[in-house]
Structure formats: C-alpha cells, structure tokens
Design goal:
This protein is α/β, with parallel strands linked by helices. It has helices spanning 20-34, 41-52, 108-121, 127-133, 137-152; strands spanning 11-15, 57-59, 62-66, 77-87, 97-104. It contains five helices and five strands; from the N terminus they run E-H-H-E-E-E-E-H-H-H. A five-stranded mixed sheet has the order 1-4-5-3-2, sandwiched between helices. A hairpin with a 2-residue loop joins strand 2 (57-59) and strand 3 (62-66).
Length: 153
Amino acid sequence: MPLPPLPASAVTVGAHAADWREAVELAGEALARSGATEQGYSARMVQVIEEFGAYIVIAPGLALAHARPGPDVNHDGLSVVILDEPVVFGHPHNDPVSVVLGLAVTTPEAHVTSVAELANVFNDPQSIPALAAATDVEEVQRILTLTEEEAAR
C-alpha cells in the first residue's frame, strides 16, 4: 500500500515554530488545508504527545505526528512541515526536530500500513537530511516519491 497522497497544499517549507506544539499544529493545519482532516485534528495530535510523550520523534530530526482515526479525519492524508529552526520535543536521542510529518488515517489498518511505508522511506539515511534541506514543495514531493519508489524495489 503506498503512502497517502501528498498534495502541494499539505507541504510547508521554511515554517517557524516556537516549540513542539506549534510544530505539530503546523502539520495539522497542512492536513486540514489538504482536506484530509478538519481543524480539530491538530489538537488531538497535541493531546497524544501530552499523554504519551515524545515517542513520535521516530528518528533523529524527524517527528511523526498523528492521532487515532476519528470523525475529524475525512480521508487518509500526509503532511510535511520543514522547520526553519529545529524544535525540541523532549526525546532523549532524536531531538531536535527539523521535519514534522502529519499523518491522518481513517482506519487502524491504514495507520499500521502507513507507518510501515514511512519506515521504508526513512530507511535511506539521506532522506531526513534531504527533506530538512528542501527549499520548495516540489523538492519535498520528489524526495518522498523517489525514496518510496526505491523502497518498493
């Protein structure tokens, strides 16, 4: 199963966030802009981190913000936020974070398969630095598409 679509409206490059909450809210706003979620989904993603901690920082410099499927999820979606300055989430090894992915899914099964696909994408050690250095939407889309295609081989 491929990753959820990544329309240009779901990508933000050079965003500024004062802290991890703002970074997650930016990822949620991008999901809402793309139509994948309603505005309230951002708050649910923040609640997950408040409740369970910074486990969403899945690799050095990379956070995967998400929440359970719910009525505020319109369809599976992915967002990417490239921060102008990294922020600290409180992870003991993978802070600070420069790239925040937002993931919204409609079923628990879609969550599992999307996370597995993202793991394949980020098996390439160059993918996170390449994303963090991206300067435009097309570059972000190209990096994720090329890396996903390589992982499928």
